Amino acid sequence: MIITKTRALVATALTTGLLLAGAGTALADPDNSNPGTPPAGKTPTQVWAGVGADAFAELTNKFAIDYNATTTASDPVLASYDAVNPQTAAAGENIVTKPGCTVARPNGANGGLSALLLGQKSTTDSNAYCLDFVRASRAKKTDGTEDSLTFYAQSRDAVGYATVGNAYAPTTPLTTAQLKDIFECTIEDWSEVGGQKGAIHVYTQPSSAATYTFFLSSIGSSIASVTTGCGPNVTLSQQNDGRSLLGDPQGIAPYTISKWAAQQNAAPGIPDYRGGATLGLINTAVAPTVTQTLNGVDYQVLNPAFSATNSGYSRLFFNAVRTASAPAGLVTLFGPSGYLCTHQNELLVPFGNTPLGSDTGASTYCGKAY
């Protein structure tokens, strides 16, 4: 599975070009026409700024728009910043989340949570933190490093993999063991897993992306194992953007199932960035998505049977805040009685997410604190 330096450089150039060509149509950042800038006319304490996961960035943008429409001029508003610049696809650039707050845009949940824990404050108002919440596509760590944060459950998702057509990849399911060997470059040819003979091209993603690290954990691997097994013979891609597979019929990359469904659904403000990428089967023939009808409209959503069959690939989406210093209104907003949880179906289903329900007696429900 040798990917030459020339191929990698061409891939990088093509990826950038594709992203630039397709960007600019999403509901993105508080000011879509001027990304990386805060809502106009608001003081630092009147902005609840969030960053983090790409997996449900557009969903949170729609949530922010709907919620902000219910506020008055003096109320705080939600300001959710995408994982990358929505117009140029630049990663890691400096953004201004609220007045007096310049931060590096985190490209994913891992990066967002690290930034939240830094506790940076506005230079114009020491009472205001620069970041108030993070879109988290993974659960809270159990090693104590995130004990100062509270994660509020939002919805259910799962992570799978995508390929461009089936010219090389098999139409039959790949097992977890096979996926591990593929992403660690132990299996190097599609014919070894029932596909057409041809080298497998592994597309990795930024370590700041929780979708990538969660997928590797699901298959029993890690970034270190991929690095050890594959070395430089991989191509870096942007998570949940099938165009960054470059139309490569021999490629494979992790993909958030609900994000793929949202892109197919043409959910509000979300461009179809699948680029011909289709979701693959894992372990069994159970499809990753299923049709759900809401208000007379059919949507593709995460298939509950897929989550049940492949529980190791299933996860929750969360909104994470500081436990001790989060604004009370923001905590309420993400809690069981807040705007998000009282509008679950209309907010979540078009974006391919499975609502968690409102039964606070259940083991998991919308707004449950962790």
Describe the structure.
- This protein has 370 residues and is of the alpha/beta class.
- The protein has two domains: 170 residues, D-Maltodextrin-Binding Protein, domain 2 (3-Layer(aba) Sandwich); 151 residues, Periplasmic binding protein-like II (D-Maltodextrin-Binding Protein, domain 2), CATH 3.40.190.
- Helices cover 25% and strands 21% of the residues.
- It has ten helices and 14 strands.
- The strands form three sheets. Strands 1, 2, 5, 6, 7, 8, 9, 10, 13 and 14 form a ten-stranded mixed sheet that branches. A two-stranded antiparallel sheet has the order 3-4. Strands 11-12 form a two-stranded antiparallel sheet.
- The protein starts with a helix and ends in a 15-residue tail after the last strand.
- The N terminus is likely disordered.
Kindly list the characteristics that best describe this protein.
370 residues; alpha/beta; D-Maltodextrin-Binding Protein, domain 2; 10-stranded mixed sheet; two-stranded antiparallel sheet; 25% helix; 21% strand; disordered N terminus
Give a concise summary:
With 370 residues, the protein is α/β, with parallel strands linked by helices. It has 10 helices and 14 strands. The strands form 3 sheets. Strands 1, 2, 5, 6, 7, 8, 9, 10, 13 and 14 form a 10-stranded mixed sheet that branches.
How are the SSEs ordered, and which strands pair?
Blueprint: H1 5-22, E1 47-52, H2 57-68, E2 77-80, E3 94-98, E4 101-104, H3 109-118, E5 133-136, E6 149-164, H4 176-183, E7 201-204, H5 210-218, H6 223-230, E8 235-236, E9 251-256, H7 257-265, E10 277-279, E11 289-294, E12 297-302, H8 304-309, E13 314-322, H9 328-334, H10 344-348, E14 354-355
Parallel strand pairs: 1-2, 1-5, 7-8, 7-9
Antiparallel strand pairs: 3-4, 5-13, 6-9, 6-10, 6-13, 6-14, 11-12
